[in-house]
Amino acid sequence: MSDETRIRAAWQADRPYLLAVAAGMLGRSVDAEDVVQEAFARLAEVGPARIDDLRGWLIVVTRRLCLDRLRAAETRRTTATATPPEAAPAAGADPLGADPADRLTLDDEVRRALTVLLDRLSPAERTSFVLHDVFGFPFDAVAELVGRTPGACRQLARRARLSLGAPEPARRAAPVPAESAALADRFIAACAGGDVGALVGLLDPAADGLAIVLGLGAPAETHGVPAVAERAIAFFGPAAGVTLAPFALEGHAGVLARRGDAVVAVIRLDERAGRIRHLHAIALPLFPA
């Protein structure tokens, strides 16, 4: 199959979904159309023969382009630049001099810009927006994690998009308490080191766990400290091939699991008296059952 044929097939099959992703992040269909066209232009430049998963590649590039647009909009809103016209980057150029398709993770500058944007949201808006619009979790999964209905999460994400387009920030997100953040860090360290003993020490005596792989049937429930610790190491330890990072879930401790550039699971850590009482994980289908 020629490159042109593969690109045409991807355009027909994946463009509607990419438009929905971009419109959800940017809030304007005309901007979404521009971003999706740019993503396909980059695909043509790279060549589909060099990419194993065209749909996944297009989704990553589309989201990165949307984040770049959000960052640029925030910079224009908050910064009065003295850069002379001849020193300004060319229209459409990446101000960092790097193609979003070549960045497997957000660099520090993009993270800072995105943090500025997300700080304008309430914890509930931020969680629904990031999990759904940025990381691609369906609203049913977001609802399961945060204890709300899918409709409520959908409305929170919509409010987040509107807030990001507002001229002034309305509120600042509440930080995760230091004790909860430290617990998440210790959980990550124990899993990364495959240290079942350290993980046992973090668990409440009555700890239990729930793991859901979307689309793969009934959730797996685990009860008791040894079983929860062993299951957590199996899912998120060294052999799982994932990288863990802390993530705030409506002001509570959470952890993201990444495989390469993709977020494959989100973990909520419910604590009691400084220990993990309940571990709730939701994974996308590409995560092993």
Automatic annotation (TrEMBL):
* Matches recorded under Pfam families: Sigma70_r2 (PF04542), Sigma70_r4_2 (PF08281)
UniProt keywords, alphabetically: Sigma factor, Transcription, Transcription regulation
Q: Name one GO biological process term.
A: DNA-templated transcription initiation
UniProt domain RNA polymerase sigma-70 region: residue ranges: 13-73
InterPro entries for the chain: ECF_Sigma-70_Domain, NTF2-like_dom_sf, RNA_pol_sigma-70_dom, RNA_pol_sigma70_r2, RNA_pol_sigma70_r4_t2, RNA_pol_sigma_r2, RNA_pol_sigma_r3/r4-like, WH-like_DNA-bd_sf
The Low complexity compositionally biased stretches are 78-99
Q: Which GO terms describe its molecular function?
A: DNA binding; sigma factor activity
Q: Which N-terminal residues, if any, form the signal peptide?
A: none
> Which residues belong to any copy of the RNA polymerase sigma factor 70 region 4 type domain?
112-164
Region annotated Disordered sits at 75-102
Describe the protein's quaternary organization and the partners it interacts with: Interacts transiently with the RNA polymerase catalytic core formed by RpoA, RpoB, RpoC and RpoZ (2 alpha, 1 beta, 1 beta' and 1 omega subunit) to form the RNA polymerase holoenzyme that can initiate transcription.
Q: Which family does it belong to?
A: Belongs to the sigma-70 factor family. ECF subfamily.
Annotated protein name in UniProt: Putative alternative RNA polymerase SigI
Q: Which organism is it from?
A: Actinocatenispora thailandica
